[in-house]
Write a structure and sequence with these properties.
The complex is a heterodimer of chains A (211) and B (85).
Chain A (H helix, E strand, L loop, with lengths): L5 E9 L2 E4 L2 E5 L6 H11 L12 H16 L4 H5 L2 E6 L4 H11 L9 H4 L6 H10 L5 E5 L5 H13 L6 E9 L2 E10 L4 E2 L2 H14 L1
Chain B lengths: L1 H14 L25 H15 L6 H7 L3 H11 L3
The chains are: A alpha+beta (211), B mainly alpha (85).
Chain lengths: 211, 85
């Protein structure tokens, strides 16, 4: 499937390091829990979004990485509104599913938490990015064993060719048991890095394994 | 009553993850929803769970909820009159 798409910019978060276009941007102490780490990155980004603290960890990860990417790429509100989002991960929403299960596992202490329950679907991660950045484009969340560059490339190309969107935010946002891995890239006709499986795999591997 | 109000403020901050607030920031007659603490519909459901879990009060009438969750002052009075634990 031929296209004129390019990778405009990419970002990763893993092992207490935030990197933008392959260059470490924020590095925090490895002893921090994800909760502590995410709070420090939030402060460092000077964000003012109190809803962040109500989110589950996977959504926090998604909000931080998308914030960094959109701080770097300036897109006017009209074009931003039409961005499509194609995300994937391995753990779906399992980490939060377990937390919710804890609230309903004891018949004598049965208090299902609505605030936890609302995060028991992986595509809520996309929803939180859309709310924060006022994005209304097409979206899909794939769950697969490992990062699948081919699938993401084909789906994004399809959206572009069918004129569903001119800009597509793609990536991998995975959180389970305080282990996290996020990799996000924006695709459009602009940018100078070719959008094909080889280049996606290359920047994914460089970013995810460099820390 | 004052101890209950303090307890409520502390629990609400913890349960609803209100990172930007401290107990001292919340006045007894501040509106919990809207311009006050800015709570949303999911927070309202969490407050219903909190009433049940901590004070044994089952709130089932949405209209009653609107009145009860007006402020810490109103909520504390309601709990004092209706608590079963």
């Amino acid at each position: 499937m031929k296209n004129n798409l390019n990778i405009v910019a990419y970002c990763s978060i893993k092992n207490h390091v935030v990197a933008l276009n392959g260059i470490p941007l924020i590095t925090k102490d490895h002893d921090l829990t994800f909760s502590e780490f995410s709070k420090e990155v939030y402060k460092e980004l000077k964000m003012d979004y109190s809803k962040f603290f109500k989110m589950d960890d996977q959504c926090k990860l998604a909000i931080l990485i998308s914030e960094i990417l959109f701080n770097h790429i300036k897109i006017d509100s009209k074009n931003k509104e039409n961005i499509a989002i194609v995300l994937s991960n391995r753990s779906a929403s399992l980490n939060t599913d377990r937390k919710y299960q804890e609230t309903i596992s004891n018949k004598e202490n049965y208090y299902p938490s609505p605030a936890v329950f609302v995060y028991t679907l992986p595509n809520i991660t996309i929803g939180e990015i859309c709310i924060k950045h006022k994005i209304k484009g097409e979206n899909v969340f794939f769950v697969s064993e490992a990062f699948n560059a081919t699938l993401l490339k084909q789906y994004a190309s399809c959206l572009f060719q069918n004129k569903k969107s001119k800009q597509i935010l793609c990536g991998w946002i995975d959180f389970d048991d305080d282990q996290y891995q996020a990799f996000l890239y924006l695709v459009s006709e602009h940018g100078n890095r070719k959008f094909n499986q080889k280049s996606i795999k290359k920047i994914y591997n460089e970013n995810i394994w460099m820390h | 009553m004052d101890a209950l109000k303090q307890e409520l403020k502390k629990n609400i901050i913890e349960q609803l993850n209100l990172e930007d607030f401290t107990v001292e920031d919340i006045l007894d007659d501040d509106p919990l929803f809207g311009d006050g603490l800015g709570l949303d519909s999911i927070d309202a459901l969490e407050l219903i769970v909190l009433l049940d879990k901590d004070y044994g009060i089952k709130l089932t009438d949405p209209i009653e909820g609107k009145i009860v969750f007006k402020s810490i002052e109103v909520l504390a009075n309601y709990i004092t009159e209706n608590r079963t634990k």
